[in-house]
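Good morning C.,

I know you're traveling, so I'll keep this short. The sequence:
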Amino acid sequence: MTRTIVHLLRHGEVFNPRHVLYGRLPGFHLSEAGLLMAKRAAEALTGHDVVLVLSSPLERARETAEPVAARFGVPVEIDERLIEATNAFEGQRVGDGALRRPRSWWLVRNPWRPSWGEPYVEVAARMWAAVQDARRRAAGHEAVCVSHQLPIWTVRRMLERRPLWHHPGRRQCALGSITSLVFDDEAVVAVTYAEPSGRAGIGELAGA
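The C-alpha coordinates, ready to paste straight into the viewer:
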Protein backbone atom coordinates (compact mmCIF):
# COMPACT_ATOMS: atom_id res chain seq x y z
CA MET A 1 0.00 0.00 0.00
CA THR A 2 1.35 3.42 -0.99
CA ARG A 3 0.51 6.44 1.18
CA THR A 4 0.51 9.80 -0.60
CA ILE A 5 -0.64 13.17 0.70
CA VAL A 6 -1.88 16.03 -1.48
CA HIS A 7 -2.04 19.34 0.37
CA LEU A 8 -4.46 21.97 -0.99
CA LEU A 9 -3.05 25.33 0.06
CA ARG A 10 -5.20 28.42 -0.26
CA HIS A 11 -3.28 31.56 -1.24
CA GLY A 12 -2.58 34.33 1.26
CA GLU A 13 -4.24 37.71 1.65
CA VAL A 14 -4.41 39.85 -1.50
CA PHE A 15 -3.72 43.59 -1.77
CA ASN A 16 -7.19 44.77 -2.77
CA PRO A 17 -7.83 48.31 -1.46
CA ARG A 18 -10.99 48.74 -3.59
CA HIS A 19 -12.47 45.50 -2.20
CA VAL A 20 -13.54 44.21 -5.62
CA LEU A 21 -14.30 40.60 -6.43
CA TYR A 22 -11.06 39.94 -8.30
CA GLY A 23 -11.75 36.38 -9.49
CA ARG A 24 -9.46 35.62 -12.42
CA LEU A 25 -8.48 39.24 -13.08
CA PRO A 26 -4.72 39.75 -13.52
CA GLY A 27 -2.64 42.08 -11.39
CA PHE A 28 -3.79 41.07 -7.92
CA HIS A 29 -0.77 40.25 -5.79
CA LEU A 30 -0.28 39.24 -2.16
CA SER A 31 -0.30 41.95 0.47
CA GLU A 32 2.45 42.12 3.11
CA ALA A 33 0.23 40.00 5.35
CA GLY A 34 -0.32 37.59 2.46
CA LEU A 35 3.42 37.15 1.98
CA LEU A 36 3.72 36.35 5.67
CA MET A 37 0.89 33.80 5.35
CA ALA A 38 2.77 32.11 2.52
CA LYS A 39 5.88 31.86 4.69
CA ARG A 40 3.87 30.45 7.59
CA ALA A 41 2.35 27.82 5.32
CA ALA A 42 5.83 26.80 4.18
CA GLU A 43 6.98 26.62 7.80
CA ALA A 44 3.95 24.49 8.71
CA LEU A 45 5.00 21.97 6.07
CA THR A 46 8.56 21.71 7.37
CA GLY A 47 9.45 18.09 7.97
CA HIS A 48 6.99 16.83 5.37
CA ASP A 49 8.07 14.86 2.33
CA VAL A 50 7.03 17.34 -0.37
CA VAL A 51 8.39 16.52 -3.82
CA LEU A 52 5.95 18.44 -6.03
CA VAL A 53 4.51 21.99 -5.89
CA LEU A 54 1.76 22.95 -8.30
CA SER A 55 0.00 26.31 -8.53
CA SER A 56 -2.93 28.08 -10.09
CA PRO A 57 -1.66 30.47 -12.79
CA LEU A 58 -2.94 33.55 -10.93
CA GLU A 59 -0.34 35.80 -9.31
CA ARG A 60 -1.54 35.41 -5.73
CA ALA A 61 -1.31 31.63 -5.95
CA ARG A 62 2.13 31.61 -7.56
CA GLU A 63 3.44 33.99 -4.91
CA THR A 64 2.05 31.73 -2.18
CA ALA A 65 3.68 28.69 -3.78
CA GLU A 66 7.15 30.22 -3.99
CA PRO A 67 8.18 29.91 -0.29
CA VAL A 68 6.93 26.33 -0.22
CA ALA A 69 8.86 25.39 -3.36
CA ALA A 70 11.99 27.13 -2.06
CA ARG A 71 11.80 25.26 1.24
CA PHE A 72 11.77 21.88 -0.53
CA GLY A 73 14.08 22.78 -3.40
CA VAL A 74 11.57 22.10 -6.17
CA PRO A 75 10.17 24.37 -8.90
CA VAL A 76 6.67 25.84 -8.94
CA GLU A 77 4.74 24.21 -11.77
CA ILE A 78 1.56 25.79 -13.15
CA ASP A 79 -1.61 23.72 -13.42
CA GLU A 80 -4.48 25.62 -15.08
CA ARG A 81 -7.01 23.32 -13.40
CA LEU A 82 -6.22 24.89 -10.02
CA ILE A 83 -7.45 28.32 -11.13
CA GLU A 84 -10.23 30.28 -9.45
CA ALA A 85 -13.81 29.68 -10.63
CA THR A 86 -15.30 32.09 -13.15
CA ASN A 87 -17.67 34.68 -11.73
CA ALA A 88 -19.96 37.15 -13.56
CA PHE A 89 -19.45 39.72 -10.77
CA GLU A 90 -15.69 39.83 -11.34
CA GLY A 91 -14.33 43.36 -10.93
CA GLN A 92 -17.37 44.61 -8.98
CA ARG A 93 -17.77 45.59 -5.36
CA VAL A 94 -20.49 43.14 -4.37
CA GLY A 95 -20.70 44.66 -0.91
CA ASP A 96 -22.10 47.83 -2.52
CA GLY A 97 -25.33 46.12 -3.51
CA ALA A 98 -24.35 44.63 -6.88
CA LEU A 99 -26.30 41.47 -6.03
CA ARG A 100 -29.51 43.45 -5.43
CA ARG A 101 -29.56 45.40 -8.69
CA PRO A 102 -32.32 44.32 -11.11
CA ARG A 103 -29.80 43.62 -13.87
CA SER A 104 -28.15 41.08 -11.57
CA TRP A 105 -31.27 39.11 -10.70
CA TRP A 106 -30.91 36.75 -13.68
CA LEU A 107 -27.38 35.92 -12.56
CA VAL A 108 -28.48 34.87 -9.07
CA ARG A 109 -31.54 32.88 -10.14
CA ASN A 110 -30.01 29.50 -9.28
CA PRO A 111 -27.57 29.42 -6.35
CA TRP A 112 -27.36 25.60 -6.53
CA ARG A 113 -25.56 25.60 -9.89
CA PRO A 114 -24.47 28.49 -9.41
CA SER A 115 -25.96 30.64 -12.15
CA TRP A 116 -23.40 33.46 -11.73
CA GLY A 117 -20.35 31.42 -12.62
CA GLU A 118 -18.66 28.10 -13.28
CA PRO A 119 -20.89 25.19 -12.19
CA TYR A 120 -19.80 23.49 -8.99
CA VAL A 121 -19.72 20.10 -10.73
CA GLU A 122 -17.20 21.45 -13.25
CA VAL A 123 -15.05 23.03 -10.55
CA ALA A 124 -15.03 19.76 -8.60
CA ALA A 125 -14.19 17.72 -11.71
CA ARG A 126 -11.18 19.79 -12.77
CA MET A 127 -9.86 20.06 -9.22
CA TRP A 128 -10.18 16.31 -8.70
CA ALA A 129 -8.33 15.69 -11.97
CA ALA A 130 -5.51 17.98 -10.81
CA VAL A 131 -5.38 16.24 -7.42
CA GLN A 132 -5.26 12.81 -9.03
CA ASP A 133 -2.39 13.83 -11.28
CA ALA A 134 -0.53 15.28 -8.30
CA ARG A 135 -1.09 12.05 -6.36
CA ARG A 136 0.28 9.94 -9.19
CA ARG A 137 3.34 12.14 -9.69
CA ALA A 138 4.14 12.29 -5.97
CA ALA A 139 3.27 8.66 -5.22
CA GLY A 140 4.67 7.64 -1.87
CA HIS A 141 5.50 11.24 -0.99
CA GLU A 142 3.61 14.56 -0.71
CA ALA A 143 2.47 17.25 -3.12
CA VAL A 144 1.25 20.82 -2.57
CA CYS A 145 -1.39 22.34 -4.86
CA VAL A 146 -1.93 26.08 -4.39
CA SER A 147 -5.43 27.13 -5.33
CA HIS A 148 -8.38 29.26 -4.20
CA GLN A 149 -11.14 29.07 -1.62
CA LEU A 150 -14.06 27.97 -3.80
CA PRO A 151 -12.19 25.25 -5.76
CA ILE A 152 -10.65 23.79 -2.60
CA TRP A 153 -13.92 23.80 -0.68
CA THR A 154 -15.87 22.35 -3.60
CA VAL A 155 -13.58 19.35 -4.11
CA ARG A 156 -13.56 18.74 -0.36
CA ARG A 157 -17.36 18.68 -0.29
CA MET A 158 -17.33 16.23 -3.19
CA LEU A 159 -14.94 13.91 -1.33
CA GLU A 160 -17.03 14.13 1.83
CA ARG A 161 -20.14 13.26 -0.19
CA ARG A 162 -21.89 16.50 0.68
CA PRO A 163 -23.96 18.62 -1.73
CA LEU A 164 -21.71 20.88 -3.78
CA TRP A 165 -23.97 23.91 -3.35
CA HIS A 166 -23.32 25.75 -0.10
CA HIS A 167 -23.38 29.11 1.68
CA PRO A 168 -20.12 30.99 0.90
CA GLY A 169 -19.96 32.27 4.47
CA ARG A 170 -19.68 28.74 5.88
CA ARG A 171 -16.60 27.53 4.06
CA GLN A 172 -13.80 26.11 6.16
CA CYS A 173 -10.97 27.43 4.03
CA ALA A 174 -9.18 30.42 5.56
CA LEU A 175 -6.47 32.41 3.82
CA GLY A 176 -3.24 30.43 3.89
CA SER A 177 -5.02 27.31 5.15
CA ILE A 178 -3.99 23.77 4.26
CA THR A 179 -6.55 21.08 3.44
CA SER A 180 -4.72 17.76 3.24
CA LEU A 181 -6.00 14.71 1.37
CA VAL A 182 -4.44 11.46 2.59
CA PHE A 183 -4.41 8.59 0.08
CA ASP A 184 -3.71 4.92 0.55
CA ASP A 185 -3.06 3.89 -3.04
CA GLU A 186 -5.96 5.57 -4.90
CA ALA A 187 -8.39 5.83 -1.97
CA VAL A 188 -8.82 8.95 0.15
CA VAL A 189 -8.65 7.71 3.75
CA ALA A 190 -8.56 11.05 5.58
CA VAL A 191 -9.07 14.78 5.10
CA THR A 192 -7.37 17.12 7.56
CA TYR A 193 -7.37 20.89 7.88
CA ALA A 194 -4.91 23.38 9.36
CA GLU A 195 -4.72 27.17 9.66
CA PRO A 196 -1.07 28.25 10.05
CA SER A 197 -2.16 31.90 9.98
CA GLY A 198 -5.40 31.60 11.94
CA ARG A 199 -8.95 32.06 10.69
CA ALA A 200 -8.27 34.99 8.36
CA GLY A 201 -10.59 35.17 5.39
CA ILE A 202 -13.28 32.80 6.64
CA GLY A 203 -16.64 33.54 5.06
CA GLU A 204 -15.51 35.49 2.01
CA LEU A 205 -17.57 35.46 -1.18
CA ALA A 206 -16.69 33.23 -4.11
CA GLY A 207 -13.79 34.55 -6.11
CA ALA A 208 -11.32 34.99 -3.27
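Safe travels,
E.
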